[in-house]
Amino acid sequence: MDDRCCSHFMKTWSSICRSGGVDLTLLENSPPCFDREVLRDTKGLETIFLRDYFEARSTWKVGPIPKHGADDEDYVKATITFGRDDIESMKKWALNRWKKDDEFQAPQYLSKFVVTCAFMWVSLVKAKYRKDDDEVAEMKEEYFHFAADCRDRLEYPIPATYFGNCLTILKAIAKTITDMKTEPLKGAENWKELFMMFLSGRIAIVTGSPKFTVYETDFGFGKPTKVEMVHPRMCVSFAESGDKEGGLELGLVVR
């Protein structure tokens, strides 16, 4: 399931727990939708995805889960918080540079998601090549991925509580977000080839969104003081800030 499904499930579960199982208002007013018929597969994507899945599955090796090695100790998990002022400063700086240096027309507005993603990605790439021997380091393409919820971007209505994956994998940031508004599933039939290309380089993948308000999830003993997402080292989790209004939290696993 995708992040929106997970968020809806957690909000519903916490609401029921908070009321001691008495108040089912959220579940009654906003029940999950499991009807797969609401999706219109006009391009035959289901057949393509199933073919690619079973081709990949045939190569999986069955065996015990490997033990953690000594290399795991080299990884550090951290949470970076951006306040509202930090984000606004990055927006102004980015727009000014865009208008001055870029050949493309600068947009009138940049979202906090775009500017924080750009700042984070550039910082990660610079950190990887910080060593003294960076000139002899193996050069690889850098790829950035994030998922977008397609429920309200298709040509036909999809319930906001549709339970299942409804994601588009995106490769760029600002320009791709604009293009995706009109064709959210463009090129979906070639996702397998794109994934294989991405694996040949270095990948940064964004998960989560501040729109899911994870700090509003209350099981009855108050709102959480700290929320951490579980994800592999190639991923960066996004959430709203728990203590800075209008801010963002980025969860990283770095070496």
Automatic annotation (TrEMBL):
One of its GO terms (molecular function) is acyltransferase activity, transferring groups other than amino-acyl groups. It comes from the Eukaryota. The keyword Magnesium does not apply. Keywords: Acyltransferase, Transferase. InterPro entries: CAT-like_dom_sf, Plant_metabolite_acyltrans. The keyword DNA-binding does not apply. PANTHER family: PTHR31625. This is Anthocyanin 5-aromatic acyltransferase. It comes from Cajanus cajan (Pigeon pea).
